[in-house]
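Writing this down once: the sequence line spells out the residues, with the fold written below as integer tokens. This is how one looks:
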Amino acid sequence: MHVTLSGWFAGQTVGSGRYTDRLLAALGDDPPSGWSCSLALSPQRRDPLTKLAYEQFRFPRLAARGGGMAHVPYWAPPLRPRGPTVVTVHDLIPLLLPEYRRRWRERAYSALAAAGSRRAGALIADSVHTAADIALHLAVAPERIHVVPLGVEAAFRPPTPDQLLALGARLSLPARYGLYLGGFDTRKNLAILLTAWRVVHAAGGPPLLIAGRLPRPDDPFAPHPATLARAAGLPDGAWQALGPVAEADLPTLLGGAAVFAFPSRYEGFGLPPLEAMACGAPVVAARASSLPEVVGDAGLLVDAVDAVAWAAALGRVLTDPDLATGLRAAGLRRAGGFTWQRAARATWAVYQRVAEGRVGPAPVH
């Protein structure tokens, strides 16, 4: 049987694009006998109406022409699938968090995705937490939901001393730094980290580097870190905005961090702390949503909204070399269990179950 994957986000650096590209590559490495997969290219126009038409009409038609199964690798299933369909639901953020469904179009799109999910042959969730959200909020039977954790690319590994020196010189990095990478919208909870870092800095801690494309200064949905730092009373010298970082530089930047902090309130999986662990960085993350599944006991987990606890945990990692060394080693071991090859094998197994009729769509009323 042939599986056709939706290519709307293919080649893009957003989370769904990275998932599509990496999963497709891993699926092609070792397909089961008699199975194959390919990508359905999306139109060049990227406006919302073209996207909706592609998801609801063009992609199901292309998959049906392929004579096999459709896989939508993000939460946008067709309302009327033309054949067996698998959908990956990374999270239900647009449905569950009010700030992500402020406009009627966002609410309508989520309602359409929810209805289409109930008609899919099977749903893939990145985590047990997301699977529980799907069962509860989409009214999907648990047996139709399959948990397939994401993987880490081989490029994410501890850097060599020469790589650290070269990147530090090229980007003018401080000799020691904390690091945040993972976006700026409100659920990322950056305000808590900056508030905690004021205490870390006052105790002699290193500067906090904030990586990623900065939001607009006046965006309430994604507050600018400079605004949050001023509100937290954090001095300018205590933090630094790096801006976008090239993909090739990420492993070295992550591996060079004295601590990687990830305070997000809600994640469908949480790839940044996993990649940080794979690069040998000690991790402090929020005890929220799926993050405990990813980090486990290989990092410190902290109440997402407790700035005092954040300051204490970050301070422990930065001042206790034995703790930091132990977290680095534990993180490497844990990250080694998350591979795209493992994700691909589990995904092939879902395809096979759907093809054999062992999971099926809920009745359409």
Q: What stands out?
A: The longest strand covers residues 2-6. The chain is about 45% helix and 15% strand.
